[in-house]
Design brief:
The chain has one domain: Nucleotidyltransferase, domain 5. The protein contains 7 helices and 5 strands; from the N terminus they run βββαααβαβααα. It has a 5-stranded mixed beta sheet with strand order 3-2-1-4-5, sandwiched between helices. β2 and β3 form a beta hairpin. Keywords: Exonuclease, Hydrolase, Nuclease. This is Exonuclease domain-containing protein. GO terms for molecular function: 3'-5'-RNA exonuclease activity; nucleic acid binding. Pfam families: RNase_T.
Amino acid sequence: MAKTLDKILVVDLEATCWQGPNPSDMENDIIEIGVCLLDVNTGEISMNRGILVKPERSVISSFCTELTTITSEMIENEGISFKEACRILKKEYLSQSRAWASFGAYDLKQFQRQCNELGIGYPFGPSHINVKTLFALKKKLGHEQGMAGALGILEIPLEGTHHRGVDDAKNIAKILNWILQ
């Protein structure tokens, strides 16, 4: 399948988390897939949304809610299955034929792990762009920066709520757009 390179799919995940080590009976589950498309020619960001996902192997801790603002009630009312979320990525965002980007390798590894463990087809093609590493290389920093730090260096205001996938995906797209200029 030929890659579509006019737009890059930008993804940011939020997953269940705990202060300290994971409880022995729980696995990190994706609870939000923040996504948008970055037009590589115009820099326009479109189709920005947060897909809330019902965790299958864990629950949302109070620490997780403090970090992300995502509550169990939000997931109960608006969440869909991980399988359905992957279907949306493939159908509405053409995720298998587009290059996709995230800030660091966590999102890539978490998607691979969760798809493998739940027996769900991986929704992306092979072309992943690590914006965190590219930014450090382009700025000749000698080390990687967090997303908020990268925005600060570029003097781009952080839009929305940090650690909400819907907002972080858009902020990452702004950093990637700067790299591509």
